Amino acid sequence: MEDRTETETVWATPRGTFSTKISNAPVRVKGDDGWESIDFDLVERDGVVRPQAAPGDVELSAGGRDPLLQVTVGDVTTSISWPGTLPSPVLDGPTATYVDVIDDVDLRMTVTDGGVSQVLVVRTAAAAADPRLAQLKLATDVDNGRVEVADGGGLSVLDDVGRTVGDAPAPIMWDSSGTVVGDGGHPVVDSSAEAVDRRTQGPVENDDVAPVGLAVTGGDIVLEPHRDALTGADVQYPVYIDPKVGGRAFAWAMVFKQHPSSSFYKWTDEEGQGTGYQNYIGVSNKRLFFQYGISSLSGHQIRSATFKATMVWSPSCTTRPIKVYRSGGVSSDTTWNDQPSLGAFQDRKSYSAGHSGCNPGGRDVVWNIKNGMAAAAGDGRPTIGLALIAEDESDPVNWRRFKHNASITVEYNRRPSVPTSRTINGIACPTTGAVRLGRMTSYPVMRAKLADPDGNNVRALWDWNAGSDITSAHSDITGSYVASGSTAARSLSALSRDENDTVKSGTWTFRVSAEDSGGLRSAASDECTFTIDSTLAAPPRVLGLPGVDDPSTSWEPDKSYQLTFAPGSTKDDVVGYRYSFTSDQPPTTAMLAASGSGKTHTLDLPAQSVGTHKLRVWAYEASGNRSEVPFVHEFEVLDPERFVRSTYTFDDEDGSLAVDSTGEFPLDIGDATRSTRSLYVDDDPDNRARDAMISLSESSQPPAMVGSFVDPKRSFDLALFVDPAKTATSSNQMTALSLGGENSPGLEIGAEVNGTGFDYVLRVWDSQTAAWVVARVPGDDGQPGTRPVVGSYDVVTKKATLRVLGANAATAVTPGTATLPESFVRQRLTVGASYDATRRWTGFLDQVVVARGPLTDDEISNFLKIWDRTECVAVSGGC
C-alpha cells in the first residue's frame, strides 16, 4: 500500500510499521490523470511558456509585453514584468533565454525544484556600462497578497493575512574570476556555452561575489547591482545578476565563508556544492544545510531514520568522514554569518567519489539519523534541519561535493488513535455531565473502541477513580491485545456491594488510552463520569381516576379519561412513566416524559372494554430505575345499556306470582301475603297513592327463584324496603333478601336484634375463609319502621357496602374482602329468608330490586320517593 504527496512516499512494511521517504524538493506533481514525475522542460502553449510538470503554477513570457514571470501559490498570484519588450525566448530544457534584452545582456529564466532562477548574463564591459543596468525596476502585481523585503535582505511574498507563501534570498551577483572545469577535467573559456551554463547555476570557486541592492517601491521590485562588481577594473566578464524567486515549502542552503553575508539558498548546481575546506581552485570553506517538513511524523514512534545524499566528487579516492548533525532552520536569510546552529551529532560516513577508481559516477551516502528524528518527532516539530559538515574543516582531502536533492527515509510506528465510542453499561459517555445508572446486581462495564492507524493489535489501559474527576487513579490493563477496530471491555469488579448484594450507590469516573504491540500509547480519552443509584423509585400516584377522586364518576365504555401520573415521592428524580392495562410487566414502548416542577405527565386514556381491568403505572428515574412495585388500580367498566334491574313490586293481581320488571324471573310468593301495611308512592300530601307490602312470618314458605340475575364478573346492587316485626326470630337474626349461589351462600340483607331495637346488616360469604364478612348499620331503639336499604358488591375491591336510607341515613362497609363462591355463576334469589331458609324474616317487605350494575344516584333518588310509613294505612280493611 502506498500513499504519496509531492515530497513524501509512504509504504506499509511487513513488520506492521510504515516507512516514508521525504525529499527536500518535489519529486512528483498531481496531474489530471494522477501523479506525474517532475519534468521542468519548458514548452510554449496557449501564448505562454510553461514547464511540462512542475509544482505550483508557473508561467513565463512567450515574448512581448506580457509579464516575464507569473507564479501562483494557493490563492496568491505574483506577476513580475520586464521594463521593456521581451523577445521570443529560446527554450532549452528548463531554461528560457531572452537574448539581448539589453545589448549584450541575456536574461535566462530557469525553472528548478528550488523555484525560478532569473539570471542576467552581462557579456561585455560595454553592456555593463549601459545606464539601464544601474537600476532595474520590475513592475510587480500581487493578487490576494503583497511583496516586501524580508529582514535578511531577501524577498517575501505574503498573503492577505500576512503568511509567507514565497521567498527568495537576498540577490547577489558574481563575475567570472574563477575557473570552470569542463567535462574533460580541463578549464574552459569563460564565454563558452559550457561555462555560462555552469555559472548560471551559481558562482564557482574564486568568482567574485557581491550583493545586489533590493527594494520594494510602490509595490514594484527595484534591483541595484553593485557598481564596482559590474564595471570595476578587475571584473571578469560575463557578470551574472541573480534575483531568484521560489516557494517556502522546501529548504536547503550552502554557506560560504569567503562570502559570509551572501545567501546561497536553494542552490541547484548540477555538479553539486561542497562541504569542508578546499584549496584546489582558490580557497573555499563551505557547509551544507537541509530542511525537511516532518509534521506528518509528529508523535510517532521512530523505528529507524536515514539521511541520503549523493556524493558527486572528492579530491581523491582517499576516504574521509562527513558528519551529520541536527541543525536549526534553513531560510532565504541563511548565510555563513547567520548559519543554523548545530545540534546533536547523528552519524559519520567515510566515502570517496568522482574518480575512475572510486565511484566515478558518484554514489549515495546514507547516514543514521534515528536519534535526531525521534527527538524531533517526539517534540512535535514541524521540521528537522540537518547539516553536512566535513570532520576536519582544515583538511582539503576531506572536501566533498553533494547534490542538493537529498532525502530522508523514516520507518515509524504511529500512535494508536485516542479510544472512541466510550460507553458505560452500553450508554454512551456524554460530552458534559454524567451517565445515570440504576440498581444493578452485576458490576458496570466500561467499553471503548480501539484503533491503530498502522493496523497493529492494541489493548486498553483504563484509569478510574471514585468521584467526578480522576485525581489518584487506579490504573488497569485489560490484558490481551485485540485487533484494531475492536471494542475493549472492563468490568469494575472492585466496586463495593450493599446488603442487598447490589452495587452500592456512588459516582465514578474513568478514562482510557490504547497501547499497541510496540508499546506506543495513545493520549487518554476524555473523562467519562457515571453515577449509580441503587434506590428504586416509589410507586407513582395517578390523579383523576373515575370513582376515586370524584365518587360521582365511573368508568364507562366509549369514553376517555384525563389522568395525571405523578411521582410517589418528592425525593424521586422521575423522568417518565409507562403504563399497561394488560400485563404486570411494563411495555417496551416509548416512555411518557415527565415535565414541569412536579415531574408529571397528563394524558387521555382511552376507554377499555366492559368488564373488570387493572391499570398499572411504573415511574422511571433518570438513573433508569423504575418503581419496583407499580401503582395498581383495579376498576370496572360499566355498560349502562346492559344494566338490567329486576324489580318486584308485589302488586300483581295474580295472588300466587310476583312478576319482576323484566318478566324473566317470576316469583311464587308462597305463604307471603299482601299486607294491610302500605307505602306512599308519590309526594302529593292530599292524595297519596299507596303500595301494599308483603308480610312474612318465621313459618312462612319464602318466595324463591333460580336464574342468572347478575353477572358475577361485574358489580351489582340489591335494594328493598324492610319493616321488621317487633318480635324477632328465635335466632335473633333475620334475612330479608338473599342472593346466593344455586346451593351456596352469597349476599344477604337483613336485621339483627339489638336490645330493644334492630341493627341492619349486609352479610357477604367469603369463599376463601368460609366465613361471613358483615357490614352493620345500627338501628334506632324500638321498632324502626319501614326503611329503604341498598346493598352493593364491588367486584374490583371485593368489598360490600350497606346503605340505610331515609331519616338518619347511614352507611357501612365490610371490614374485609370477600370472594364469592364459584357457584355464584347462577344465583338463587330468596325473599324473606337465607339461601338455606334458616334465617327467616318476620315483618314486611316491598320493592325488591336486583340490579346488574350499581344503582345510579337518580335511581336511588327515585327509590326514596317511596316514603317510609309514618302511620298505619288501611288497605282492604283495617291495620
Question: How does this structure look, described?
Answer:
The chain is mainly β and 879 residues long. 4% of the residues lie in helices and 46% in strands. It is built from 5 helices and 66 strands. Strands 1, 2, 3, 24, 25, 26, 27, 28, 29, 30, 31, 32, 33 and 34 form a 14-stranded antiparallel β-sheet that branches. Strands 6-7-8-9-10-15-21-20-19-22-14-13-12-11 form a 14-stranded antiparallel β-sheet. Strands 51, 54, 55, 57, 62, 63, 64 and 66 form an 8-stranded antiparallel β-sheet that branches. The C terminus is likely disordered.
Number of strands: 66
The parts where pLDDT drops under 50 for at least 5 residues are: 868-879
Contiguous helical run count: 5
Classify the secondary structure makeup into a structural class: mainly beta
Taking the alpha carbons of the first and last residues, their distance comes to 120 Å
Strand fraction: over 45%
What's the pLDDT, averaged over the residues? Answer: 85
Q: What profile does the largest beta sheet have?
A: 14 strands, antiparallel
**How much helical structure, as a percent, in the residues?**
under 10%
**Backbone CA Rg:** 55 Å
User: What global shape is seen?
Assistant: rod-shaped
